[in-house]
Structure formats: structure tokens, C-alpha cells
Amino acid sequence: MRASLIQFGVDPAEPPAARRERAAELVRTQRGSDLVVLPELWPTGAFAYDSFVAEAEPLDGPTATAMAAAARDAGVWLHAGSIVESAPDGIYNTSLVFSPDGELVRTYRKIHRFGFDKGEAVLMGAGREPVTVRLPELTAGLATCYDLRFPELFRALTDAGAQAFVVPAGWPARRREHWTLLARARAVEDQAYVLACGTAGTHAGVEQAGHSIVVDPWGEVLAEAGPGEQILVAEIDPGRVARTREDFPALKDRVIKR
Fold it and tell me: What integer is the mean pLDDT of 192-208?
């Protein structure tokens, strides 16, 4: 199973419509991959708080339309990162997953909102439930950026059958070491793949970490990007999850469970 993580930047001088088209074209270049992943909030920028309300869109809005067409044209499963979703009860940081025929098959509203007493934490609503999606060869658990710091979410996803975690992010450069450490920790403790896709450049003055990463169930880094725009490609062996869990059955020794 081939996964492509598209790490690209959010230039404030680039109109959102142009950015959508650029993202769609990048997805189309990945024909032959099984799964393509985009970063968090790439249509607006993860730290562009002042634009959230103005740029919010419904689940059938322009980003979803463009991504559906790109997934269909490339014939790939597409985790289209996340958008600022406009809903009747407010706005959400919502991930979109499309099938190779362009159907929106799953959404995930980010549960853990970053910002403490400002930004996303006060502007956006919180998701309530862990979400998984069945891909052709494995089940993927969905998480977004700051979620990576909360192992209980990933354990809940594992209990729901996840063999891999897909994590789009807009992670700041000043905490890049945390990004790599946490991605590997989530892989090791749940014996699952982690596919974490970050952004390059700067969002609203916040330098981004880049360094998208793919980690296997034993915690080994299969591929890691640099800080700039890059498409990271890795081969995933779905059978390695079962083999790791069988060879080192730590999950069976859990005492405290949800």
C-alpha cells in the first residue's frame, strides 16, 4: 500500500481558490498511490484565526468539490486534510476523507482544540467521537494536529480497530521535536502506523515545522520530510501491524481500560 503525504505551504498572498487548485493538481500527480494525505486547515492556514469565520465553508463547499474531483481523477483514497467547516451551530476543524470515486465517505471534527484561551480553542466547536475509516487494506483512525498529544484518543481508535493513524497538522517549528517524538510514541504504544502530514512555510506569522513523517508499528521512521514543500511517499505493509501485535503482544497486558 503506497501512501503519499503532500506537505505544502500556505502563502497569504495566494488566494484560497488558487490554493485549492494547486492542492488538487498535486493530488492528481499521485495517481498510483493508494492513499494521499493533505495537511490541516490548508485552505486558510492553521493559525489564521482572523480568517476562520470568513473562510468557513459547508461540507459540500468549494474545497470538498475540488478534492472530490481530484480524488476521482487520481483514483486514490484522499484524506483532504481539514477545513473550517461552517455548520448551523458554529464552526469546526473538520477533516474530509474521499473514496477513489470522489465520494465523501467520512468526516472527523477535531476533538482537542489548540489555543488554551484563544484562537481555535474559543472559536471552534469540539468533535465528540473518535472516527475510523475502512480503507481497502486496513482501518485508519483519524486525528488532527493537537490531538497527537492525547494518547487516550489513539487508544480509543485502536480499540475501534485502527491499524494506522492519519494525522494532518499545522505544527509550529518551535515544537518540532515534540511532533516527531509524539508521532513515534503513538505508533509504539498502539503498535500501529502513523502517517502525520504537516505544512511548510508560515501561517499568520507562525513558522511551520514541516517534517511530515511515516512511522511503522515498531516505532521505526520509514520516511521523513524536511522543512520545505515536499511530497513524502512511503510503502505501508498492512500485515506488519498484526505481526507486531502478535510478536510483542503488549496490548493484551492492558489492565486499565476505558
Answer: 94
CATH of segment(s) 2-253: 3.60.110.10
Task: Provide DSSP, 110-178.
Answer: -SS-SSTTSTHHHHSBPP-S-EEEE-SS-EEEE--GGGGG-HHHHHHHHHTT-SEEEEE---BGGGHHH
Sequence spans of domains, the chain: 2-253
Task: Give the rounded percent of residues in the chain with a pLDDT score beyond 90.
Answer: 94
- The three grid cell numbers given for residue 254, joined into one nine-digit string: 492492558
* pLDDT per residue as tens digits for the range 56-87: 999 999 999 999 999 999 999 999 999 999 99
Detail the DSSP E strand segments found in the chain: 2-7, 35-37, 77-87, 90-98, 104-109, 131-134, 139-142, 164-168, 193-197, 202-203, 206-207, 213-215, 221-224, 230-235
Asked whether the beta carbons of 193 and 241 are under 8 A apart, the reply is yes
Strands 77-87 and 35-37: parallel
C-alpha cell at 73: 481523477
Q: Which of 204, 150, 159 is nearest to 11 (CA)?
A: 204
Q: Catalytic residues, which ones?
A: 40, 110, 145
Alpha-carbon gap, residue 214 to 193, rounded angstroms: 7
Global confidence as pTM: 0.97
pLDDT band at 257 (very low <50, low <70, confident <90, very high): confident
Please name every residue paired with 9 in a beta bridge, in sequence order, or none if there are none: 200
- Pull the grid cell for residue 178: 515534540
